[in-house]
Amino acid sequence: MADYAKTAAGVLAGVGGEDNVTSLVHCATRLRFVLKDESKADAATVKAVPGVITVAQAGGQYQVVIGNDVPEVFAEIGKISRVGGGQDSAPAEGPKGNLFNRFISMISAIFTPALWTLAGTGLLKAFLSAAATFGWIDATSSTYVVLYALSDAFINFLPMVLSITAARYFKANEWTSLAIAGALVYPTIVAANGAPGLTFFGIPFTMVSYVSSVIPIIIIVWLQSHAEKLLYAKLPGAIRRFVTPMIVVLIAVPLVFVVIGPISDLLSRGVGGAVSWVWDVAPWAGGAIMGGLWQVFVIFGLHWGLVPVFQVEFQTTGQILLLGPVFAAVLAQAGAVAGVWVRARNKNLKSLAAPATLSGFLAGITEPAIYGINLPLKRPFAFGVAGGALGGAIIALGGVFSKAFVVPSGLAITALLGNGNMVMLGLGLLVAIVLPFALVVIVGFKEPADDAAPAAVPVAANDVTVLAPVDGTVIALNEVADAAFADGALGQGVAIQPRSGAVYAPFAGTVVAAFPTGHAFGLRHADGTEVLIHIGLDTVRLGGAHFSVKVAAGQQVAAGDLLVEFDGDAIEKAGYDLTTPVIVTNPDLYPAIADAASGPIAHGEPLFTAVSVDSVAATK
User: Fold this and answer.
1) Which of 25, 170, 305, 398 could pair covalently with 421 via S-S, beta carbons 3.0-4.6 A apart?
2) Catalytic, out of 26, 27, 546, 603
3) Using one digit for the tens of pLDDT, what is the confidence trace for 192-202?
């Protein structure tokens, strides 16, 4: 079972501690930090934390990719720090960087809190639409009316939803924002859409639809935040708390109706018209671009910039043509990682590919596949891009669209059923999945060396089995965020990311070094093997705090004897990486290791074999 608390503590320490965090929100798969000083964040340390897939820096954010478990890790960070304060917390200060980065950061922060509910109700609406299309439910029944209302209400009143998230982002009064949004979707206002001869104190205006709209509420809440600062500074304290919202609402709502709404409606129609034009003139090109580049956008976190475009297209046309090819992009990467699952001989690679395949196909969560497998192996990712582009082009040629915003996945395909040419949809999805799968299986990829490759060295009688001294997860030594250990300068071995606070003797022998600080121990086996256990990185600076040493130098120990206890949570909260290297320190007698373990391990289980110089000589 995943240790979310450990992941949270490791990530927070790796980004420089909570004092280095300006804000934190999360999306479907990522923790999105805005850091005060990104130079204080150590990407290698963060990547080494159990549960972290990778790190990306884009859109003015320091993004830690977690996968499906990101809400749990986010919640744990909130328990151990003042960071976050809620999924939709606003940054303490605006994101830095160019305008594009700031725009991406803003869109991410405003849409993220509502994304899963938007996707979930959208999926329900897609299922309902499919049920009505195939005659499984009577569209004139009261049951259908109830189901349609509960599936459509959230997106219908989207301005009210975004008024809350935008207010938190721009630091405006969210209840005043909600009052403004409520006026935009008030029944009599909705009924006035398109009515002729409308005026406000003699000023003529055109009423447009604000149902499901995005742009007007974001703009007006931004203006509201500035107006409130000005009014709070100028009005007397006795009246400003109720006069400020009165003035803001009185000015903001007419401003939307007279100016912002009509202008944003023109922009929205322009976007919707542009999408329709591309799909009319060269639909294959639009589909190929969306299908081929969507996952590239995901890598850099830039896909958020397209979320409001989807919504604008839906608001103006009642359908989302752009979303169809994205299904091809997602399922193509799932098809590629399925090919890796079938083709790979490396057991660890297979074990990673299996859940990544299921996650990609069923839930549309492709980060584990992309970062963990396809992108590092290069060819599978390229094949996935090719499959997504070709499949997306075919789907677009079929005029396939969605009538609801959903997260593209196998389960959400119902959102596309009955909308466009279904033969082209089936062909496009088939090509998107089968092409990269077949290319991966047939062409192959450069498979990483198996973790147990050092076992080629024969184990002799004087070779020594070193047991795991602590419960945790084994990682390669070159993944340790300390060059002295990572490059093998201090000796060969592995490292363990602990999940418990006790360290035990890895074999029977003598304690040759027991640092009073408790952070490191040296032991010598009866056959001469010398092993160093270094608990955490740079933890000597703690001066013994959070460590309780149980042995002394010169003491004889049996395998499994307790050497030290430590408070891992306190150490990590102090900003230290708990990664624990276990290395052989006398390479003149034991120059290699074999049978190195990987993945989860419990203390007392075989960790690696220290290979003697005699065994090495025997292979030459």
Assistant:
1) 398
2) 27
3) 887 888 889 88
